Amino acid sequence: MRKRGRARKTRGRFIALEGADGTGKSTQAKLLASFLAKRGVPARTTREPDSPLILNALSGCESKKGACLLFAADRASHAEKVERLLEEGAWVVCDRFTDSSLAYQAGGWGMDLGQVEEVNAFATRLRPDATLILSCPPSLAAKRMRRRGGESGFDCDLPLQKRVSCLYRFLALRGAGRRIVDASGTQRQVGERIREEVEKKWNLKS
Length: 206
Ligand code: TMP
What we know:
five-stranded parallel β-sheet, globular
């Protein structure tokens, strides 16, 4: 006899968009989610850092270790939310995840990569199914940031952004679902490159 009860939903997919400031992640995360939705895929977007409490604490935090822990704390609760969405069958397109801490806290700020990884392993064991690292020349990213009016000391520190980009490239060499996507060109061109990666990985061509 057939067992009654609710059919188990197929677990969704978790796609992280990563990159230095000004590479266009936030816009592209929205574009990718709406592309997936048009293909009938239930897509949701999330972002880090997200919790107002943590954002507030970060703004007053002068310790690198403290900030690293705050980013990880934000990630721990964000990951639980993502996990629930994946269980419900949603595809989650996330604007930044663990690689951001590796790239910024280790690459940008010079913290020990192993220690940053340890802190993050404690925060969550969740790993993206695909990580698309948007990459463009830091000078172009800085220009975009200025155009957007987002020039703050933190965001437009060019040497820092170069170290961040460098660490992202290093992470891409490790593989584990990471791909570098050329983020120079128009929003449309970059969106097309991202969609190609996603279509290739999950065979979504209609
Ligand atoms: P956003 O500009 O993508 O909103 O991110 C805010 C800043 O926080 C950005 O400069 C990157 C930085 N950041 C870290 O340094 N470590 C992290 O783990 C995350 C998620 C962001």
